[in-house]
From TrEMBL:
Residues 371-396 have a biased composition (Basic and acidic residues). Keywords: Cell projection, Coiled coil, Cytoplasm, Cytoskeleton, Repeat. Residues 615-801 form the U-box domain. InterPro entries: ARM-like, ARM-type_fold, ARM_PUB, Armadillo. The keyword Repeat applies. Residues 368-441 are annotated as: Disordered. GO terms for cellular component: axoneme; ciliary base. This is Outer dynein arm-docking complex subunit 2. Residues 663-690 form a coiled coil. Component of the outer dynein arm-docking complex along with ODAD1, ODAD3, and ODAD4. Interacts with CFAP61. It comes from Chinchilla lanigera. GO terms for biological process: cilium movement; determination of left/right symmetry; heart development; outer dynein arm assembly; regulation of cilium beat frequency; ventricular system development. It comes from the Eukaryota.
Length: 1039
C-alpha cells in the first residue's frame, strides 16, 4: 500500500512538507480499490480483522455521532466502540471531528456507516496516514517497499519476540498483495489512455547494434538495454515507469564521449541521470531536451557518430525503410479528436484496415439532441492526459531497475491468484478481433447493410427509423451480417443512437444490438466503444420496453470479466436489482396482480442480466448489498418458467459463496428448488439441480432436500441421459446429498444405485466425476456395496483408475476403496489388477490423488487373501510408500501411515520397510499437532515396533517423548493408538525411562479407567512395564 501511494497517487505540495491528494480520476480509482479491500476484509479475513493496530489510524472526519448505532456508546460529541483491545482501549474513538481507529473490523464498519461519503473519508484517512503500514504493524515495517518479498516478511516475524508475530505476518502479506494489486490494476487502467508501442524503438536499437562494434568505421562502440527482462507488452521499463510513457532504457557508448544512459518514451528520446555509483540504480529524471528518435539524439551528442552515420546513411536508411513497411505510426498518446480532424483520422484507419475497400461516413443526425459518442468521451481522457502531461516531471521518482524483477514476479503471482470467481470459465477469454479480408468474396447482405448504415449516419429521424427496421429484416443471427454492421461503422452509430431522446430509435437500436451481441467479437467491441455505461443509464428509463431491451443486451455482453466489471462500476448491479422488484405495490399472496405481463418481462430481463454478471465474486457481493437476494427468493415462487430459469441460474452462481448458502437456507429456497425439479423444462431442472449441488455441502441443506421430497425427482432424472449438462447437474446434486446416510437409504429405495452403476460407461468426464463421487459415498454402506458388485460396477470403476482427470481419480479411488471392504468385491478388484493400479497412483503429482489412493489401499491390504505376498509383488512398491513419508501434505502423511500400519502386519514386509528407513522417517513426524496424523502415526509406530530392534531405534530417534504428549489430545482414537504404541515401546528399558521423565504414568493411569477396553489394556500394560523396570532397578540398587 505504501508503494502504490508513493508511486501512483498524485499529491499536491503543501507548505509544511506534507501534501493532499489531488482530485483526479487516478486517485479516485486508487481510493475505490482501497475501500473495496477494507469492505471485504471483515468477510475474507475475519481473524485478521480483529487484530489491534500498533498505533491508531487518525484523521478528521465529517461523520456525526448520530450516524453510529448498535455496538457503540454515543454521546453528543463522542463515540466509543464497545469492542476494546487487550488493554481495554476502544478500537474506535470519535471526538468530533477527530477519529481514531485501531482495527480492520472497525474500519470495515466505518466504511459501511459512511455510505455515500466513504470516498471522502478514505481520502482524509490516506492523507493523514501517509505510511499506514507502520501504524498498523509497527515501525519495523517502515522498510516494506517494493522489494519486500514474503520471505523478508517471514524472516522479520520469525526473528521477533512479539507474541502476535504470526498474525502480523499474515496481515503484512495481505497488505503486500494489496500493494501489488493496486500497481497492476492502475497500470492496466492507464494503459487504456497511454499507447506504448516499443516495436519501432526495438528495431532502431537492433539496427544500431548491427552498425556498432570495435573499429573506427562503426557508428558506436556498443548499445545495450539496461534490463534483459521484457514485459508482455514489449517494454523493458518497470511498470510504474510505463505509467509515465517510458518504454526502455539504453546504455550507449559512442567513440568520442562517455557512456550515455538514454530513456525511450512516448514523448521521444532523452538523456536521464544515468546509473548511480553505489547501487547501480537509474536516475530517471530527464537531463536535457527531448529528441524524436535515437539517431537524432546521438547525432546531437556525438560528432563521431554523426560523421560515421553520414558514411553509412544510404545503407542505414534502406534497412530502416525495410523495418517500417506496413507499420502503424507509434509513440502516440490516445487523444480525442473532433470535427474535420476526427473525420480524417477515421478515414485513415478504415483505409489502413480495409485497403480502401469501403469508406466510413461521419454521423450527421440533424435531429439529435446529444453530442457524438466519441466527442462525449473526450473530456475525461483530455483531463487525464493533462494530468499526466502537466505533472510528468514533478511526479517522476528514482526506482531501482533491480527491483523490477521482484515486483514483476509478485504481480504475476497476484494476477494468477486473483481470479474473479471460481465459476468463471473459458467463456471469459476475450476473442481475437477478426475482420473481413479486403479481397474476400463478400455476400450481397454485406453491401446492403453498408448502404443502410449510410442512411443511419446521414438521414433524418424518419429515415433512421426506416433504416433500423430494414436492418432487422436481415438474419442478424448470421455472423456475416453481425460483422458487416461492425466493419462498416454501424456499431458506433447504433451506440450513438442510444444517447438520443427518440424512444423509437433507441428501441430499434437496442433490438439490433440485442441480436448481434451474441457474437463474442461484437461483445468486446460494444465494451470498447463505451456502450455498456449508456445501456446501464437506460435502465432508469420510464419505458419498460427500453429497460427490457437494455437488460437483455447487457446479459449478452457481460460474458467476460471486463464487461462485468464495467457494469458494476457504473452502478448497473443496483439498477438491475431494482428491475426485480416488479411488484412494489402488491401484497403477497396476490399472485394474479403480482405478475402482470410487462412487469414479469422487466423482472425476467433484469434476472437474465444479473445471471451473466453473477459469475464475478465482486458482482455477487454487489447483488447481495443491493438487496437482490430477497427479491430473487420472491421471484422463485412464480410459475413463469421463463422467469424461473434466469432467477435459478443467478441463485446457482451465487450459491458458490457461503453467505448466499446460509441465506438460501434462511429464505426457504430449497423447497422451491425441489418443487421446480418436477418441471417439464429441462433447462430449469438443470439449474435447480446445480443450485442443490452448490448448497448441499451443508448437512442441514441435505436434510431439507430430503424432507421436501427432492431425492425422488433427482433419482428419476438419472434415467434421462440425452441432455449431458442436466445429467451432470443431477449427478452432482445426488453426490453431495449422498454424504448423509439417511439420503443414501432413500436413494437405495429409489433404485438410484443401479442407475448410477449404469452411468459408469460412455459418459463425459464431468458426469463421471459426479457419478463416481456418489457411488463412493453410497458404498460406505454394506448393502450398497453388494448392489454395486451384483450390478457389475467393480470393473468399470477399476477401468477408471487409468484416467488423468484429478477430480475423477480422487473419487474413483475412494469408491474402489469403499468396495474393497467387502471380501467378495476385493477378489474382483485383485483379479482386475486394481491394487496395482491404486499403487501406481501413489506416483501421481497431485497430493489429493496420492492421499486418496493410499486410503484405498488400506482396505485392499486388509481384505486380500495373501496380502503380504501381493504387496511384495509390486516392484519398488514398498520403497515408494516409505518415501511418501517425506511429503509436506498432512493428508498424504496420514494416509501413508495408515497404509504402513496394514503393510507392517506381514513380518517380511515389515523387515523390508525397516531396511528402507521407515523408523527415522516416522520418528521425524512425531512432533505434529494434527490429531488425524497423530492417530495413524502412532498406529504405524506400534506395528513397526514388532521387528528387530525397532523399539530401540524409535527411542534413539527421539520419538518417545512427543508420543507422550499425544495423551493430552481430546481425541479418544489418538489416546488408543498412542497407548498401544507406548505399550510396544515400553518393552525397551530406555524408552520406559523417557516415558517416566515425561510424566506418562499419570496420564496413563487416567486412561486405565476408560470405557474403551483396548485403551485400558494398552495403558495398563505400559504402566506395568514401567513399574517392572522401576522394581528391577530398585532391587539391583539394594543388592
Amino acid at each position: 500500500m505504501g508503494v502504490a501511494l508513493a508511486r501512483l497517487a498524485q499529491w499536491t505540495a503543501a507548505s509544511y512538507g506534507t501534501g493532499t491528494l489531488e482530485i483526479t480520476p487516478l486517485n479516485e480509482i486508487l481510493l475505490k480499490e482501497i475501500i473495496i479491500f477494507v469492505e471485504h476484509f471483515i468477510y475474507d479475513h475475519p481473524q485478521e480483522a480483529k487484530f489491534s493496530f500498533v498505533e491508531p489510524l487518525e484523521w478528521k472526519t465529517d461523520l456525526e455521532p448520530s450516524a453510529f448505532e448498535s455496538g457503540y456508546i454515543v454521546s453528543e460529541t463522542t463515540v466509543t466502540s464497545e469492542e476494546v483491545d487487550k488493554n481495554g482501549q476502544p478500537l474506535l474513538f470519535l471526538s468530533v471531528p477527530q477519529i481514531k481507529v485501531r482495527s480492520f473490523r472497525q474500519l470495515s464498519q466505518l466504511v459501511f456507516i459512511a455510505k455515500d461519503t466513504k470516498l471522502k473519508e478514505a481520502q482524509a484517512c490516506v492523507e493523514a496516514n501517509r505510511d499506514p503500514v507502520v501504524k498498523i504493524l509497527g515501525s519495523d515495517y517502515s522498510t516494506m517497499t517494493e522489494d519486500s518479498s514474503a520471505f523478508n516478511i517471514l524472516h522479520k516475524i520469525t526473528s521477533s519476540d512479539d507474541p502476535e508475530s504470526e498474525m502480523k505476518m499474515r496481515i503484512a502479506i495481505l497488505l503486500k498483495q494489496l500493494d501489488l494489486h493496486l500497481l497492476s490494476y492502475i497500470l492496466r487502467h492507464i494503459s487504456l489512455q497511454i499507447c506504448l508501442n516499443p516495436e519501432p524503438v526495438k528495431k532502431d536499437i537492433e539496427l544500431l547494434k548491427s552498425f556498432s562494434g570495435k573499429g573506427e568505421q562503426t557508428v558506436l562502440e556498443s548499445i545495450d538495454y539496461t534490463s534483459d527482462y521484457e514485459f508482455s507488452n514489449g517494454c523493458r521499463a518497470p511498470p510504474w515507469r510505463q505509467i509515465y510513457g517510458e518504454m526502455c532504457y539504453v546504455l550507449v557508448k559512442p567513440h568520442d564521449v562517455e557512456t550515455l544512459c538514454i530513456t525511450c518514451s512516448t514523448e521521444g528520446v532523452f538523456l536521464n541521470g544515468g546509473k548511480t555509483d553505489d547501487e547501480g540504480e537509474i536516475d530517471y529524471e530527464r537531463k536535457g531536451e527531448v529528441y524524436k528518435d535515437l539517431v537524432t539524439f546521438l547525432k546531437e551528442k556525438s560528432a563521431k557518430f554523426s560523421e560515421n552515420m553520414s558514411k553509412q546513411d544510404i545503407r542505414f536508411n534502406e534497412e530502416q525503410q525495410k523495418n517500417q513497411i506496413d507499420e502503424v505510426p507509434t509513440y502516440a498518446i490516445r487523444k480525442s479528436v473532433s470535427g474535420s480532424d476526427k473525420n480524417k483520422l477515421e478515414k485513415n484507419q478504415i483505409n489502413f484496415r480495409k485497403n480502401q475497400m469501403t469508406r466510413r461516413l461521419e454521423p450527421s443526425l440533424n435531429w439529435r439532441t446529444t453530442v457524438d459518442f466519441k466527442d462525449r468521451k473526450t473530456p475525461a481522457k483530455d483531463s487525464q492526459e493533462e494530468k499526466h502531461g502537466g505533472k510528468l516531471e514533478k511526479t517522476r521518482t528514482s526506482i531501482s531497475p533491480g527491483r523490477a524483477q521482484l515486483l514483476r514476479k509478485s504481480v504475476d503471482k497476484v494476477e494468477e491468484m486473483a481470479s474473479e470467481s471460481s465459476s468463471e470459465s473459458e467463456e471469459d477469454e476475450e476473442p481475437p478481433d477478426h475482420r473481413q479480408e479486403a479481397n474476400a468474396d463478400l455476400p450481397s447482405e454485406y453491401w446492403q447493410i453498408q448502404k443502410l448504415v449510410k442512411y443511419l449516419k446521414g438521414g433524418n429521424q424518419t429515415a433512421t427509423v426506416i433504416a433500423l427496421c430494414s436492418m432487422r429484416d436481415f438474419n442478424l443471427a448470421q455472423e456475416t451480417c453481425q460483422l458487416a454492421i461492425r466493419d462498416v461503422g454501424g456499431l458506433e452509430v447504433l451506440i450513438n443512437l442510444l444517447d438520443t431522446d427518440e424512444v423509437k430509435c433507441k428501441i430499434g437500436s437496442l433490438k439490433i444490438l440485442k441480436e448481434i451481441s451474441h457474437n463474442p467479437q461484437i461483445q468486446r467491441n460494444i465494451v470498447d466503444l463505451g456502450g455498456l455505461p449508456i445501456m446501464v443509464n437506460i435502465l432508469d428509463s420510464p419505458y419498460k420496453s427500453l429497460k427490457c431491451l437494455a437488460a437483455e443486451t447487457i446479459a449478452n455482453v457481460a460474458k467476460f470479466k471486463r464487461a462485468r466489471r464495467v457494469v458494476r462500476q457504473h452502478g448497473g448491479i443496483t439498477k438491475l436489482v431494482s428491475l426485480l422488484d416488479c411488484a412494489q405495490n402488491s401484497i403477497e399472496p396476490a399472485q394474479s396482480s403480482l405478475y402482470e405481463t410487462r412487469d414479469v418481462e422487466v423482472a425476467r430481463c433484469g434476472a437474465l442480466a444479473l445471471w451473466s454478471c453473477s459469475k464475478s465474486y465482486s458482482n455477487k457481493e454487489a447483488i447481495r448489498k443491493a438487496g437482490g437476494f430477497p427479491l430473487l427468493a420472491r421471484l422463485l415462487k412464480t410459475s413463469h418458467e421463463d422467469m424461473l430459469i434466469p432467477v435459478v441460474g443467478t441463485l446457482q452462481e451465487c450459491a458458490s459463496e457461503e453467505n448466499y448458502r446460509a441465506a438460501i437456507k434462511a429464505e426457504r429456497i430449497i423447497e422451491n428448488l425441489v418443487k421446480n425439479l418436477n418441471s417439464e423444462n429441462e433447462q430449469l431442472q438443470e439449474h435447480c439441480a446445480m443450485a442443490i449441488y452448490q448448497c448441499a455441502e451443508d448437512e442441514e441443506t441435505r436434510d431439507l432436500v430430503r424432507l421436501h421430497g427432492g431425492l425422488k425427482p433427482l433419482a428419476s432424472l438419472l434415467n434421462n441421459t440425452d441432455n449431458k449438462e442436466r445429467l451432470a447437474a443431477v449427478t452432482g446434486a445426488i453426490w453431495k446429498c449422498s454424504i448423509s446416510k439417511e439420503n443414501v437409504t432413500k436413494f437405495r429405495e429409489y433404485k438410484a444405485i443401479e442407475t448410477l452403476v449404469g452411468l459408469l460407461t460412455d459418459q463425459p468426464e464431468e458426469v463421471l466425476v459426479n457419478v463416481v463421487g456418489a457411488l463412493g459415498e453410497c458404498c460406505q454402506d454394506r448393502e450398497n456395496r453388494v448392489i454395486v458388485r451384483k450390478c457389475g460396477g467393480i470393473q468399470p470403476l477399476v477401468n477408471l483408475l487409468v484416467g488423468i482427470n484429478q477430480a475423477l481419480l480422487v473419487n474413483v479411488t475412494k469408491a474402489v476403496g469403499a468396495c474393497a471392504v467387502e471380501p467378495e468385491s476385493m477378489v474382483i478388484i485383485d483379479r482386475l489388477d486394481g491394487v496395482r493400479l491404486l499403487w501406481s497412483l501413489l506416483k501421481n503429482p497431485h497430493p489429493d490423488v496420492k492421499a486418496s489412493a493410499a486410503w484405498a489401499l488400506c482396505p485392499c491390504i486388509q481384505n486380500a487373501k495373501d496380502a503380504g505376498e501381493m504387496v511384495r509383488s509390486f516392484v519398488g512398491g514398498l520403497e515408494l510408500v516409505v518415501n511418501l513419508l517425506k511429503s509436506d501434505n498432512k493428508e498424504v502423511l496420514s494416509s501413508v501411515c495408515a497404509a504402513i500400519t496394514n503393510i507392517a502386519k506381514d513380518q517380511e514386509n515389515l523387515a523390508v520397510i525397516t531396511d528402507h528407513g521407515v523408523v527415522p522417517l516416522l520418528s521425524k513426524l512425531a512432533n505434529t499437532n494434527n490429531d488425524k496424523l497423530r492417530r495413524h502415526l502412532a498406529e504405524a509406530i506400534s506395528r513397526c515396533c514388532m521387528w528387530g530392534r525397532n523399539r530401540v531405534a524409535f527411542g534413539e530417534h527421539k520419538a518417545v517423548a512427543p508420543l507422550v504428549r499425544y495423551l493430552k489430545s481430546s481425541d479418544t482414537n489418538v489416546h488408543r493408538a498412542t497407548a498401544q504404541a507406548l505399550y510396544q515401546l515400553s518393552e525397551d528399558p530406555d524408552n520406559c525411562i523417557t516415558m517416566h521423565e515425561n510424566a506418562a504414568v499419570k496420564l496413563l493411569l487416567d486412561m486405565v479407567g476408560s470405557p474403551d477396553q483396548e485403551l485400558q489394556e494398552a495403558a495398563a500394560g505400559c504402566i506395568s512395564n514401567i513399574r517392572r523396570l522401576a522394581l528391577a532397578t530398585e532391587k539391583a540398587r539394594y543388592n
